[in-house]
Amino acid sequence: MNRTPLIAGNWKMHGARSEAVVLARALTETIGRVSGREVVIAPPFTALDPVGQVIAGSQIRLGAQNVHWEPKGAYTGEISTAMLGEAGCTYVIIGHSERRQLFGEVDETVNRRLHAALRAELVPIVCVGETLAERDADATAAIIERQVASAFAGASSTQIAGCVIAYEPVWAIGTGCTATPGQAQEVHHAIRRQLVGLASDTTAGRVRILYGGSVKAANIDALMAEPDIDGALVGGASLDPAEFTRIVCYEETQG
Q: Can you tell me the distance from the alpha carbon of 82 to that of 242, in angstroms, rounded to the nearest whole number?
């Protein structure tokens, strides 16, 4: 089944409004009219509105880095789906490993955020991944299976089909170490097989599964040549307009 590749740039806690606008303008010039693939950029919350204005009318979509599960209330420091929608977001990253490792994110809260995003018609990019200790203990398959099952608990097959999954091995994020294309493909294929059981063959064939973890121009072509890798969740390299442009414009290999 043909799946439109998706390249998402997670800017993390980088970029004051002025810096974010400069970066967004540079990207609209190089990939604002890209075809054959989807591009999402996720700036910090304070830059969502100005970046959204810059990319309006281009092919680049706006994403957020997190969202709370309640529509409003006494949740100091949180952000709601309505706030993201007002800023022009159509995507939201959920369960990123940095949220899990540093800020107490657990499988249950990932699931609650997912359902909030679905209710608001935001496309969730659900992140899953194992630590180095878990990989060394041969627990990768069990960890990923648990995270995927927990994230989509209570979601219908139709809802799951509209979601995106990002496999991001924790040991490869910001370390310069990247899973080999073969290692990434093995996990992506296992996730797709799991989706057959959670939903259906059709849904499993529709869900886009991205790879995240030190993605750069030097390795994107090899990663995208794998059959179950449908795109990338890019961290640091998304802050460099030339590097991110090259990643988006990866060279397709006919196999």
A: 33
Catalytic residue ranges: 96, 168
Place of tokens 């992140």: 127
Could you tell me which CATH number the domain at 6-248 has? 3.20.20.70
Which residues touch 78 (CB under 8 Å, ≥6 apart)? Answer: 68, 70
Give the span between the Cα atoms of 45 and 41, in whole angstroms: 12
Radius of gyration (C-alpha) of the chain in whole angstroms: 17
- How far, in Å, CA of 62 to CA of 199, rounded? 28
pLDDT tens-digit profile of 83-121?
999 999 999 999 999 999 999 999 999 999 999 999 999
Q: Dihedral through CA 176, CA 30, CA 3, CA 157, nearest 10?
A: 80
Q: What's the CA gap between 168 and 157, in Å, rounded? A: 23
At 129-177, the pLDDT tens digits run 999 889 989 999 999 999 999 999 999 999 999 999 999 998 887 777 7
